[in-house]
Write a structure and sequence with these properties.
Length: 160
C-alpha cells in the first residue's frame, strides 16, 4: 500500500472496534493477552487505553515495551505491533475518560494509579472478508475438492 492508503485503511477498520486484545510479555517470557477498551477511534498511529499503573500489564510494559494490539471490526481482523508507553497526563486522561471506564475504577478518575497506555503503532496486518459470512461459506464450499484456495478477501501489511 502506498502513501496514506494503509493508515487510512486501519483508521477505517478501527472505527468499528471498541474492544481490543492487548498482548504483552510476562517476566517468564510468556505472551499474555487481555481485553482492553479502545479510547480513541481517530487513529493517527497511536492507540490509547485507560488502565492501572499498578497492574501486572503496566510492569510488563515497563520491562518490555514491545506490544501487540489486535481487534475485530465487522468482517475484518487487525493486528498492530508497536511500543507501549505509560502516560501520566491529567488533561489527556480527562479527554479519554468515559462512563464505561469509570466502572473499572472505584474512585473514578481520582483512583490512585490510574494512567493512560499509549501504544505507538509501527506496523499492522489486516484481513478483511469481502461479502460477509455467507460469501465466505460459499467460497469455502466451492474450494472443497479443488486445488484452489477460497477467496476470503484482502490481507495486507501496513507500515505505520
Amino acid at each position: 500500500m502506498s502513501g496514506n492508503e494503509g493508515p487510512n485503511k486501519i483508521t477505517e477498520l478501527l472505527k468499528d472496534a471498541s474492544i481490543a486484545m492487548l498482548t504483552t510479555l510476562s517476566p517468564e517470557g510468556k505472551l499474555i493477552s487481555r481485553p482492553m477498551a479502545i479510547q480513541e477511534a481517530e487513529f493517527d498511529g497511536d492507540l490509547w487505553f485507560v488502565f492501572s499503573e499498578d497492574s501486572p500489564k503496566a510492569q510488563q510494559i515497563k520491562d518490555e515495551a514491545e506490544v501487540n494490539v489486535s481487534f475485530q471490526a465487522k468482517h475484518a481482523f487487525v493486528s498492530l505491533a508497536g511500543r507501549g508507553n505509560i502516560v501520566r497526563d491529567r488533561a489527556k486522561l480527562e479527554e479519554y475518560w468515559s462512563a464505561g471506564v469509570d466502572a473499572w475504577f472505584p474512585d473514578g478518575i481520582e483512583t490512585p494509579g490510574v494512567a493512560l497506555l499509549k501504544v505507538e503503532s509501527e506496523s499492522a496486518q489486516y484481513w478483511e472478508a469481502s461479502g460477509g459470512p455467507i460469501k465466505m461459506a460459499v467460497e469455502v464450499l466451492k474450494s472443497r475438492g479443488s486445488d484452489r484456495e477460497p477467496d476470503l478477501g484482502d490481507s495486507s501489511k501496513v507500515d505505520l
